[in-house]
Design goal:
The chain has about 625 residues and is mainly α. About 70% of the residues lie in helices and about 0% in strands.
Length: about 625
């Protein structure tokens, strides 16, 4: 099958879904109105609440939600073949993922920028809010560990990558100062954007020379050292004002992310490589060398963020809702960014499946496992020599994706001699994707823990308190840093995938109650149906993960603690979701049978005539 035909069909489908379905959601279901003041204006403080231009906020939001999931998930899911992953990436994003992100963003905006747990408290019940807060916190910490470990694997023993990624921090700070604190008191975008992208490209090229200089040793770190550096960065980024590092770095990263995807699309139009994988493989029935379970339910938790991600709901209700300038911007940012992320997932899947199957499995499995598959490698020796690294057994998905991308790029005329640059560019591209999620996620986790600990000791609930913020940020970083330091991709990713999708179930359940309480019960099935499907698949995957992955670890002395911890976390996730969804169902039943909605619920939205939505 030729990738060009597939890509054209998918791009047309995305365009139609955004133009018509998202407009329907905005006008008929959520009734967006710019006359309503957003929390960014009502509570403007220059720290967390800050009105932000639509394109800049899109950059922050997209960078924050687009982490390891749409890159690594589809790459690993290629084990099942090309067709299953492609269908779930496209359909799942349009009817589930983008709907969740958009709806939760609007719900948070209408609740003064409150978190998902607070929305659950006000729309469902205090008990549901408390359970959701605890479940969200645990799931979020595991999610950050799942995202972070991919960065650790990609940057360890890579001075080129460490230098380039490290340089994005001072570049972003300079952009933030000029963009938000420059002369005239207005937000400036064009000049800092141009300068920032230019400096980033210079850092990428400079990384090659640094890696071949005497500085290379100082920038070569072990996985444990990268973990400590990552934790330090997460702590600093989550405590500084959003305009200083988080927003400009995410905005800068979005240029790289969307620019790279655009170049990858162009490469496919020029090279139009063939898909070398079958539509489905024998591994759909289980016993795969990368993912041991069956297609159902493990495809859905492996692909994760590319189709739907509970983590997105935390970004929508954590940082983005506090920076939204106008209500109507929520459509472009909430629905549009998820469609863009889905496209990233599709491109990752195409890149992986355009490789020879032998090369793909040789990278993503250990040499001992690959030897049993009986598959020949085709281009792996060439790529290892060209990039100057041994690519065999580099599991986790990040390296195979970089090779797949580099293989497409080298097909562009004049680019075949730059294969080493393309490979390391792809590694930087992946690391940028994930780091922007880690810093935003750590800030969101800080907000959630503020709310939770504030119920125990009120001063800790003050998000503007510097001592409280520093203490809670340190607690968050310590938790996910510990999981990375002591775990590996085979144990963290299943926990991350299941937890992330269970969080999506909570978000969709809360969104359904929000719609019913708004008087939009006739549209509630738009969130309820995805909630049921995602809930059933993920609970099944969670139970099987405990049975087949985590509990067996308890039988071995040196992994016993990790086995008990992972099993306990998964049980907490599942029980929390069941309690929240059950309370949501009771609340819906009561509302539909005439009982008054909770006092703090947003309630019915005033509709003064038809609302029209333009294409964008």
């Amino acid at each position: 099958m030729n990738t060009l035909t597939v890509l054209i069909i998918i791009l047309c489908f995305y365009a139609l879904a955004y133009r018509y379905y998202s407009a329907f959601l905005a006008a008929k279901v959520l009734v967006l109105k710019d006359a309503r003041a957003t929390p960014a204006h009502t509570y403007k403080d220059g720290q967390n609440y800050s009105p932000t231009p639509k394109w800049v906020l899109f950059g922050h939001h997209f960078a924050a939600i687009a982490g390891a999931g749409p890159l690594v998930g589809p790459t690993l899911a290629a084990q099942f073949g090309f067709a299953p992953g492609l269908l779930w990436l496209v359909l799942g994003a349009v009817i589930a993922g983008a709907v969740q992100d958009f709806t939760v963003l609007v719900a948070s905006v209408r609740h003064q920028g409150k978190s998902l747990a607070e929305i659950a408290r006000t729309e469902i019940s205090p008990f549901a809010g408390l359970v959701a807060m605890i479940a969200i916190l645990f799931i979020l910490l595991v999610t950050l560990a799942g995202l972070g470990i991919v960065v650790v694997n990609a940057l360890s023993a890579s001075p080129w990558g460490v230098f380039t990624i490290g340089m994005t921090i001072p570049i972003a700070i300079g952009m933030g100062l000029y963009m938000f604190k420059g002369p005239g008191g207005t937000i400036r975008v064009a000049v800092p954007s141009g300068v920032g992208v230019t400096l980033l490209m210079a850092a990428l090229i400079g990384g090659h020379f640094v890696a071949n200089s005497s500085w290379a040793g100082a920038l070569t770190f072990t996985p444990h050292q990268i973990t400590l550096l990552l934790a330090t960065y997460g702590f600093i980024a989550s405590t500084l004002p959003v305009w200083l590092l988080l927003t400009p770095r995410d905005y800068l990263s979005t240029y790289v992310k969307l620019g790279t995807i655009a170049v990858l699309i162009l490469g496919i139009f020029i090279v139009h490589p063939n898909i070398q994988f079958f539509a489905t493989t024998s591994y759909i029935h289980g016993d795969g060398p990368i993912i041991g379970g069956n297609l159902f339910p493990f495809l859905f938790v492996t692909i994760a963020c590319g189709a739907i991600s509970g983590f997105h709901s935390l970004v929508s209700s954590g940082t983005t809702s506090k920076m939204l300038d106008k209500e109507t911007d929520a459509r472009f940012i909430g629905y549009g960014a998820m469609v863009a992320e889905s496209l990233v997932g599709v491109m990752a899947l195409i890149a992986a499946c355009s490789m020879a199957p032998g090369d793909y499995f040789a990278i993503n499995t250990s040499p001992a496992v690959f030897a049993k598959l009986g598959l020949p490698t085709v281009n792996l020796s060439y790529f290892s020599h060209a990039v100057g690294e041994n690519l065999v057994g580099r599991t986790g998905g990040a390296v195979s994706l970089a090779v797949g991308m580099a293989q497409i790029f080298r097909g562009i005329p004049g680019m075949d001699r730059l294969i080493g640059y393309w490979y390391h560019y792809a590694i930087m591209f992946e690391a940028l994707f994930i780091l922007t999620t880690v810093d935003a996620g750590t800030r969101v986790a800080r907000y959630v823990l503020h709310e939770l600990l504030g119920k125990v000791y009120k001063p800790l609930g003050n998000q503007k308190s510097i001592p409280a913020g520093v203490l809670i940020a340190a607690m968050v970083v310590l938790c996910w840093g510990y999981l990375i330091y002591t775990g590996n991709i085979s144990t963290i990713w299943p926990l991350f995938g299941a937890g992330n999708q269970l969080l999506a179930t909570i978000a969709l359940a809360v969104a359904t109650v929000f719609l019913v309480n708004m008087g939009k019960a006739r549209y509630a099935w738009l969130t309820a149906v995805p909630a049921v499907f995602v809930g059933i698949t993920t609970v099944t995957a969670g139970v099987l993960s405990v049975k087949n992955i985590f509990w067996p670890l308890t039988k071995v002395a040196h992994t016993a603690f990790q086995g008990y911890m992972d099993s306990t976390l998964m049980v907490i996730f599942i029980v929390g979701v069941i309690l929240v969804v059950g309370n949501a169902a009771i609340r819906i039943w009561k509302t539909l049978h005439g009982e008054a909605i909770p006092i703090e619920a947003f309630g019915p939205s005033e509709e003064n005539g038809p609302i029209k939505m333009r294409c964008c």
